[in-house]
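Researcher: Quick one. two chains, 703 residues in total.
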Amino acid sequence: MIGRAHHAPSSTVALDAPRDESALLRVEGLKVHFPTEDGLVKAVDGLSYTVPAGRTLGIVGESGSGKSVSSQAIMGLHRGSRAQVSGNIFFDSTDLLQIGDEQLRRMRGRDIAMVFQDPLSALHPYYTVGNQIMEAYRVHHNVSKSAARTRTIEMLDRVGIPNPDKRIDQYPHEFSGGMRQRAMIAMALINDPRLIIADEPTTALDVTVQAQILELLVGLQEEFGSSIIIITHDLGVVAEMAHEILVMYGGKAVERGSADEVFYTPGHPYTWGLLSSMPRMDRARLERLRPIAGNPPSLINPPSGCAFHPRCPFMDEAKYHCVSQVPVFNPELPHPVRCAIPEGERHVIFEQKVKPSL
Amino acid sequence: MKAQRDGQEPILRVKDLKKYFPRKTSGVIRRPDSPVQAVDGVSFELYPGETLGVVGESGCGKSTMGRTVLQLLEPTAGTIEFKGKDVTGAKGRELRRLRTEMQMVFQDPYGSLNPRQTVGSIVGAPFAIQGITPEGGVKKRVQELMERVGLNPEHYNRYPHEFSGGQRQRIGIARAVALQPDIIVCDEPVSALDVSIQAQVVNLLEDIQNEFGITYIFIAHDLSVVRHISDRVAVMYLGKIVELTDRDTLYADPQHPYTQALLSAVPLPDPRKENKRDRILLTGDLPSPINPPSGCVFHTRCPKYRTLTDTEKKRCVEEVPLPRETQAGHSVACHYAESTNLAIV
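Model:
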């Protein structure tokens, strides 16, 4: 048995974080819209959050909630496409949406790196794994090939790839899924970036390999002090990794809080639905699962008012105007929730109707 | 639904089932090739009305096992007895009749429905193939089925692309249920779906089981879903069943070191518990099913193996552990199986 790396979130930092002007990353009013034949797809529609240095933010939500699209905007991956991106993304004091392509290219990989879900399509099949990692290093460092090679072997070793001096000359198809993901993490970390965006980094992996990769990411964060944004639909993964959690629904943030807050005192009916709909191994088995009714919202014609209202068991237009008004989300609050029901009433509903069945 | 096993005859009896895939040798030089041993000696019994969960990681042979049981793949060796009758290698008319009794729900709700066919003809296909005209006509029956699985019967003439992933999976379920089979093999039926939709489909599968008295083989990698839906659970590793017992025993008292590692690797949606829990980390990757390790196939990655004495280790390397009952109804294929506390619940 191996003891887990303990990384209990310190609640004081989490509470102060949103107001912290020195946050490493500050996303403000981000919108990413895609014009299509069927209409304007509002994939991300007014998203704000911060990531303090050395911390991990977990972004959870279902497919189409905008979690991946918003993080691609940080990396500038929508540039040159038809996507309409607006808002601000401050990295330190640089607005990533305002800088030129050349300046962004210098930052990509050096300051901000990305780990993708599917390492088989993210790695180039034609080049050896070593060549691809060395390229990532030499783009940002004026070093000789042999120095880059030494550094790459060091990095492959660090992420737990056996025989790194041999594996460096192999092609991606010669690596197993878990090893490929390790190689991609090595590539992301080789320039010692201050922010790592991991988009579903373990979704394609088996659970025993996932455990290895998550352990690796936590260990590397402690060693290098990078900030991490981990995007996932798996609440177990965020419970293990994240200090803070952002819940997205229909292109908007609906709740943000410390891991403890989101798991033990969640405020949004959608978060309640997520937590109570999944079967859990660590609880007494239920006779029946409690799904969230209905389907995810259309991003072209989103529901009026609160996007969750058609599926929300607590929706009440007469009392809260769920259908006619978009509820506000104040990112300056310590635990903001985008819900029209007043906090006091929500607390009562949670304690009486939701918590007993969690 | 709890299976009543006392005095009941199994509906399906699988004995020493093997499925090897030959490897193609290309080029001029022919080398003697060893096959991919995807399923390598699997035995189990299935009782009417129960759900047998099958879990394991990718490449463990769980899908191949399901398909071989249904004879979508021809078994290399072993027997499949359905209602007391040996149906191994059934062909032609016999196989077609067997299809009315055993059906399948596939993982990919996009790949398993013909994009050029309407929902009506997809769900009605089993009737057409079997030459059966249900009472009231095919269309009426198909619309009843659509309604039963939570689809709007008016969408009879729509195409699969007009439906969401969850709705498509409902179409696949309606098709599988159409002939009221005795057994349905569900191969990862909810893993492509979002959490909130997953629960809807799991509930639907349970309702249909209760209504029609169907027996399920439920293949999945998600241990939480399998615990919810199964009466008994089989854990597979590299083509073999390493542990098989009823659901509550498996999750409370797993005895095979692989099952223990698998259960401890699942991240729990509970940060405080997660931070306190110890995890059994497996090292390395799944060995190749072309050339599986000798003796116990798990010994190369087994955490227990590393704690054994040299004489004990020798046994793991040389002797294949056969499934043995450590207690009634709990079979474990390990020479040194024992309980451990994983602190999950």
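Strands of chain A lie at 25-36, 39-51, 56-60, 84-91, 94-95, 112-115, 195-199, 227-232, 244-249, 252-258.
Researcher: Thanks, that's what I needed.
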